[in-house]
C-alpha cells in the first residue's frame, strides 16, 4: 500500500467580494501517496487552483480557509508559522505556476533566480549553486545550460520558461510537486515535451505530483488517479481507468464527451455541457451540477453523500446509490428534470 504523503480533509476556502462570500472550495477531500501522480480536473472556476494555493499556504485576504485541514506527512500545514512555511515551501513542497513569465523576475538572470532557491534551502555557496542550476537545466532538456544561466526570462520561449520553472521546483528534490496547468498556452510539441518530463520525474524519483489541469488528455498520459471537481466540490475520484472506462458521475461523462475523438475514418461530433457553472456566491442547494445534468431528478435538490463505487472509486451522485439506476440513466441518455 502506498504511503500517504498529503491528505486534504473537508477543505473550505472563501473570498470576500462586494457581492458576498464567494465559496470557491466547499468541502474538498482527497489524498496523494508518496511517488504518486494525481490529477485534479474540472472546468474553469471549479476550485482547482484555489485548492492548490490553499495546500501551499498561499491564500491571502480577502481569501481565507474557513474549515478543514491539510496534512503533509501527518503535519498540519495550517498550524505552521511563516518562518516554518519558508523552510517548507520550495523545499519539501514545490509548485509550478500556470504562467511562467509572471513567476520569473524579468530583471534577474535565470541562473541568479535558480541559485537563490538552491542557496536558501540547501546551503550551498554561490559558485556551487550556479553549477547545480546548470545541471538542473541540463536535466530538463535545455541545451547549452552554461550559457543559458546567464540569460534573462525574455530570452527564453514559453516552453523553455516552463522547463526553467520545473527545474527550479525540482532543484531541492521536493517530496511533492504541485503543477498548476503546466502545459496551458504551449503548442502541442512543447506540451508533449513537458509531459514527457513529468513522466520521467515519476520514473526517476520518489517525488509525488499533484497535476492541476482541465485537459483530460494530459491526465490520461501522466496520472494514476484523478479527482474531478465542479462548483468547488469533488464530484468523482478514482483511478484513470475508473474515470475513463467506469465513469460514475454525469459531470465526468460530460467532460469526456466534450473531448475531441477520432476513431478510424469516423469523426465524432463534440457534445458540449449545456449551461453555465454555478454562482458560488449563492450556490444552489443540493448537487451543484443539478441545473446542467441531463439525468437530474427531484432528489438532486438534496446534496448526496459520497458513494463508494469500488476500491478508491467514489462519486457524489444520487444515481450511483443504486448502480442499476445509473446504468439505466446513462443508457437512456437522461431522465429529465
Please describe what this structure looks like.
Keywords: ATP-binding, Cell membrane, Membrane, Nucleotide-binding, Transport. GO terms for molecular function: ATP binding. Pfam families: ABC_tran (PF00005), oligo_HPY (PF08352). The chain is of the alpha/beta class and 337 residues long. The protein has two domains: 250 residues, Rossmann fold (3-Layer(aba) Sandwich); 62 residues, no CATH class. The protein has twelve helices and 14 strands. An eight-stranded mixed beta sheet has the order 6-7-8-3-9-10-14-13, sandwiched between helices. Strand 9 and strand 10 form a beta hairpin. Helix 4 packs across helix 5 and helix 5 crosses helix 7. The model has no long low-confidence stretch (mean pLDDT 88).
List the main descriptive attributes of the protein structure presented here:
four-stranded antiparallel β-sheet; 12 helices; Rossmann fold; globular; alpha/beta; 337 residues
Amino acid at each position: 500500500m502506498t504511503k500517504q504523503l498529503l491528505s486534504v480533509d473537508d477543505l473550505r476556502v472563501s473570498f470576500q467580494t462586494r457581492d458576498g462570500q464567494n465559496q470557491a472550495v466547499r468541502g474538498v477531500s482527497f489524498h496523494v501517496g508518496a511517488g504518486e501522480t494525481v490529477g485534479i480536473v474540472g472546468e474553469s472556476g471549479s476550485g482547482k487552483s484555489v485548492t492548490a494555493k490553499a495546500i501551499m499556504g498561499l491564500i491571502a485576504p480577502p481569501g481565507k480557509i474557513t474549515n478543514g485541514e491539510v496534512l503533509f506527512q501527518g503535519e498540519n500545514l495550517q498550524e505552521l508559522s511563516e518562518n516554518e512555511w519558508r523552510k517548507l515551501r520550495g523545499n519539501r513542497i514545490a509548485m509550478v505556476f500556470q504562467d511562467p513569465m509572471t513567476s520569473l523576475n524579468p530583471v534577474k538572470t535565470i541562473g541568479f533566480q535558480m541559485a537563490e532557491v538552491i542557496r536558501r534551502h540547501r546551503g550551498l555557496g554561490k559558485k556551487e549553486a550556479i553549477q547545480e542550476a546548470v545541471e538542473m537545466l541540463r536535466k530538463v532538456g535545455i541545451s547549452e545550460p552554461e550559457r543559458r544561466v546567464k540569460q534573462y526570462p525574455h530570452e527564453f520561449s514559453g516552453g523553455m520558461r516552463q522547463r526553467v520553472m520545473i527545474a527550479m521546483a525540482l532543484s531541492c528534490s521536493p517530496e511533492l510537486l504541485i503543477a498548476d496547468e503546466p502545459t496551458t498556452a504551449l503548442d502541442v510539441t512543447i506540451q508533449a515535451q513537458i509531459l514527457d518530463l513529468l513522466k520521467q520525474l515519476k520514473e526517476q524519483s520518489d517525488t509525488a505530483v499533484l497535476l492541476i489541469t482541465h485537459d483530460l488528455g494530459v491526465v490520461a498520459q501522466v496520472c494514476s488517479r484523478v479527482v474531478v471537481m465542479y462548483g468547488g466540490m469533488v464530484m468523482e475520484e478514482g483511478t484513470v481507468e475508473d474515470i475513463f472506462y467506469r465513469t460514475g458521475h454525469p459531470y465526468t461523462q460530460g467532460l469526456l464527451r466534450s473531448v475531441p475523438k477520432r476513431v478510424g475514418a469516423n469523426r465524432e461530433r463534440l457534445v458540449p455541457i449545456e449551461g453555465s457553472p454555478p454562482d458560488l456566491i449563492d450556490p444552489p442547494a443540493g448537487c451543484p451540477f443539478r441545473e446542467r445534468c441531463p439525468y437530474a431528478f427531484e432528489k438532486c435538490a438534496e446534496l448526496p453523500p459520497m458513494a463508494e463505487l469500488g476500491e478508491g472509486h467514489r462519486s457524489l451522485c444520487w444515481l450511483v446509490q443504486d448502480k442499476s439506476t445509473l446504468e439505466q440513466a446513462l443508457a437512456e441518455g437522461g431522465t429529465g428534470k
